[in-house]
Every structure is written in C-alpha cells, then in structure tokens.
Amino acid sequence: MKDKFEKPIQIENGDTFKVILSKYGALALDKQENLSDLIGDKTGDLDLEKGTLTFDDIELPIQILGFFTQELNQWSWAWDNDDIGFDDSFIQSARQMKAIGDEFNIPQLTSPVIMTDLDTCHNFAMVATSVLDLDGYYAVSEDDLAIFVAVSSDLIKENDSVEKFRTNYAIFQKNFNVYPKIAFEGYTKLKGYVYKPHDDFAVAKIGESRIIVGFTERGNVTHIQMLLEDD
pTM higher than 0.90 for the full model? Predict the structure, then answer.
C-alpha cells in the first residue's frame, strides 16, 4: 500500500527528457514484457485504416506515436502528419505528448522532426507508454520505415512478481542512459509500491518482500539485493 505522504511521480518544470525517461522508462520495460508474454515471437500486421495491430488471432487497437526513417536517421511525431494523413483518432496519444512537451518545454516532444537513431525512438515510445498509461508499444518495419504504435488491451496481463521487478530494474539502469536513483524511485512508485529512501540506499517494499538498492554519492548502483517474503 502506498504511503499517503509519498511524493507522486510526475513530470515537473525543469525536467529534461533524460529525467523523464529515468522516471518512467523502467515501467515501460515492464509493460513490454507483459506484451511479449501475450504475443510471443509473432510478427505484427499493422492496419492503419482500421487502427489495429494483429498477431495471428490477437487484434489490438493502436495509437500511432511516430515513425523513424532509417535512411535519414529521422524521427517524426505522428501529430505532424499533414503529408501522410493519419486518421486523427489514431494520433491522440501523440497529440497528448506534444501538449506535455509544450507545457514543460521538452524539445524532444515538441519538435516535429528529430535527427536521431533507432534506440532513441524506442525511448520516445517508452516514455509515451508510461506517461499516458498505455499497455505497451510495437515498432512495425516497412522497408526503410519503422512505425511506432502504442497499444492498450485487457488481453495484456500484468506480471507483478518481485523477481521481475528486480531483474527489470537491473536491466534498465544498466542499459539505458538514465539516472539510476531516479529510475528506482520512479519504477517503485509507479508500480504502486512503497519507496523508502536512505542516505546511500533505497528500499522498495513489495508486500512483505523487499528490493534494496545501494547507491554511490553520484547516484550509481553499487548492489541490488532481493529479500523475498519467505526468506
């Protein structure tokens, strides 16, 4: 149960995109695992007219976030789509991200075209997934184009195991350019767990289990310890 006095995770004035990714990215990875559990190794079939993403007999409604042109190393947000003409009902999530970018002065969310790489495009989709409380995202490759879409469906079930939380956080803070201490707090609180900070470590209380992460003065991870309920 959340401590009612805990400060909630939210985007604040002065947050850079790196801070926002740190706050929300681990939860997005968590959601991606849930999506992967549903679709396995199936390849998605995107129907932009119907607004669906289909994996054999599994059909998921989509929101179009944006697309990456590999030849140009260029990301384009779906809200800037006059030349393509996406159905407006399928780009509402992209428009919401634009509004957030406008409110908090986040250039990565307000620039219609960004020169970048594919990994950064995944970061954009991860932030959108968690900030807007969607259930996951998927990138559909069409020749030189990768179209990023977000999905929401009751078919996607959550796996809230302590082991998954520990592994997911470890992977996120190691493999992404984020602030590990902010990431641990964000992931813990967004999952609805109690977060307890200390001078050189922090604790996530997950029921009767605990995840304890040690940090250096610069906020880097020194160790991750898992204490399960039956230990």
Answer: yes
